[in-house]
Each structure stands twice: as structure tokens, then as C-alpha cells.
Amino acid sequence: MPHAAPLDTIGTMARTNPQRGAPGGAEFDRQASRFGGHAGPPTLLFVLLPVFFSFLVQVPVAVLSGVHRHDPLGLLTLVLALIGPGALLFARRFPGPVVAIVAAAACADLLLPSASGAPYVAVGFAVISAIARGARLWAFLAVTAGWLIAFGGSLVFSIDWNPGRVVVTTIGLVVAMVIGEGIRTRRQRVLEFQLAMRRRREDTAQAERVRIARELHDVLAHSLSQINVQAGVGLHLIDEHPEKAAEALANIKLTSKTALDEVRGVLGFLRSERDAPLLPSADLARLESLVAGASTEALRVRLDNRITSAPSAGVQLALFRIAQESLTNATRHSGASEVAVTVAETAGFYSVTIEDNGVAAPAGASTTTLESALGNGIRGMRERAELLGGTFEVGPVDAAGSASSSDSFDSSDSAAAAGAPLHAAAGGLAGPVGFRVRAILPKQGSGR
Q1: What residues form the membrane-spanning segments (predicted)?
Q2: pLDDT in tens, 181-206
Q3: 282-448 adopts what CATH topology?
Q4: At CA 432, angle to CA 430 and CA 436, rounded to 5?
């Protein structure tokens, strides 16, 4: 099932070099807002307040200075004072170019003979904004280039600067960089946390979808398969043995009713109905009716229940569903005349083994190959076993009763839990075994 597109977008954005510049800053804010708000301070604090403060500090002083001196360059001084606050209005969307423009205006203001003398605080806000929004390279290059140009210009034009002002300005720029880096780090951590939470919610939802799909598949595939078989029997016998055709119709009615009840249970869980069971009721007590329902004149199914202690509800559900799906596959695909179902236990394991004398799969066929051939059923059985910390085997069986599948078991306890080959056991298959499905589950399931 596909994941939501925003995750790929944000993952790509997070891996992109933050020094690429302006577009990254706007994209960062947009993606952050999609996860529950901005990843940093609100717009009023982070955009409008710096603009207002820069305007208040720089522009009035530049106006008064130009009026007082009647300097022909006073208008240029005023324009430079306005560039800083004006450029900050676009810092959120274009943080890189803004810090470059503001730094250039600050250098020009410093080098003008008619400079007002007011601190060009807009450059500090531009540096903070650029670094916080990912345009660090722009900020570092703008500050470095601006500082070098300012010192070079002071030597060329013989401008005498107060050493205290140089020290304070340098410290101010360093502090602005530190503040910007701190804000950037915080924004990144917030976004990563929100992204991780989003992925966790989607993973949980995906796991639940898989579980529900597995339940629906096991319920519907088995029931519809049984209905199909019984309907075929009824059509075949309706003329010569109408009483057996009527029995087949009764079985169809019972099977469809059971399937509807289980589907209602799953749908009730999906709708979060309080009286709906969390899982469809399926346990080992229903194995006898399962075997009886799968038995026909053409297919004899036998059950050997060797379990003496009651497994947990999760283990019972897994054993039942694996037996149910295996019987469905035997009915639909194997062409078998006999199927033997055995559930057993040892000190540490429960097992379910289903063997038939039908058409065997190719020797050496792996579980992955069989999954591709038989669809979702094999995959669902394997998932059920692995979720409880167990193991799963499926494949052809040779004349000696040993599995030819590459997915065989190594644990001696696990092998003991499975019991002897059924075709050699009392009450087992009379002829050669063609196909085997076996799952072994620990009594203390991991519950993954």
C-alpha cells in the first residue's frame, strides 16, 4: 500500500543541502506548517518585529541627519536606511538574497561620508533569518564579503572608525550567527520529530491494514472456496441424488452465514463499534467443524488433535487460520483426495501440520516462489507465524515424508512438535504425501 506523498517530499527537503538558498527557506516553512504549525517562532515575531525595529532605529536617524546637515547625499542615506527594513519583508521567502542585499546596503551606509551613524541592525536580523531558514552559506559569504569590503573601503577612502564600534559590530554579527544557528537547529529537530511521529502513525495504520486484510482474506477465501465446492456437488447430484444436493445447499447456507458473521466482526472493528469483537472468533474448538465442512465425497479430511493444554487466544487464532487457509489451498489447487490436519504440542511449542496427497510443488521450491504462485494465502500464513515468534514451512514432501522446501526447520524441539510424517502415522494419509504446510509457534509468543 503506497505511503502518502508528503513524506517523500519532506524527506527529500530534509536531505537537501540547506545552503542552496532562498527557495529552501520557504519550502521549509511550508512543510513545517503541514505538520501542525511553524517549526519556529510565529510570523509576527520572526518577520514583522525585525522590520519594525530596524525601521525605528535606522530611518528616523537618517531623516534627522539629512535635514540637519542639508547634505546632498542625505537622500541616498535615507534610501539605504529604508533598504534594510524593506528587504526584511521578503526574508521568509528569499532569505539568501535578502541577507546579501542587506549586507551590501550596510556596507554602503558605512562607507558614505554622510552616514547617519545609526547602527544598521537590519543586517543582524537578516543574518539570523538566513541561517534559521537554511541559507547558511549565503549568510556566511555575505557577512565575510561585507566585512572585507568595509575594511578595504575604509583604507581606500581614509575613513577613521572608532575601534569600539568595530568590536561591538563584530561581536553583534557573531551573536546573530549563533542565534540563527540555534533557531535553525531547533526548527530542524521539531520537523524531524513531527516527521518521525507521522511515519510512526502511518506504520501503525499500515500494520493494521495488513492485519485486517489478512483476516478478510482468510475468512472470504475459505468460505467462498467451500461454497464453490458445495455448489459444484449440488449441481452434480441434483438429478440423481436430490437429497445430497439439498445437503450441499444446506452446507452453502451454513458456510455463508459463518462468513457473514466473521466479516461483520471485522467491519465492526473497522467502525470501532463497542460491541464488535477486536478479532473474529476463531479458535481450536472450531477445528472439527472446519474439517467437517471441508470434507466432501471427493476430498477426505482427517483431524488429529494432540493438544492437551489450551494455547493463548493469539496462538489459537493463528493455528486455526493456518489450517483454514491450507485446506482452502488443498481444495482449490492440489487436486488431492486426502488431507490430514494435525495439531500438536511439546514442552515449548505448538504446531499445526497439513499434508495432502495432491499434486506436489516443484522440488526445492521456496516459500517466496510458492507465495508468487498461490497468492496472498501463503504470505498471510507466514506472517501469522512470524508475528508470534514462530516458524513456517511449506513445500513438497518426498516419499519418506521429509520436506523438500528450502524453508525447513532446524530446531529439534520444533521438529518434535510436528510429530511423525502423517502418511506413516496411524490415521494419517494412506498414499504418498505431495504437499505439506507446517507452522510451529512458541507457547510464549513474542507478540511482535
Answers
A1: 44-66, 73-92, 98-131, 138-159, 165-183
A2: 998 999 889 989 999 999 998 888 88
A3: Heat Shock Protein 90 (3.30.565)
A4: 105
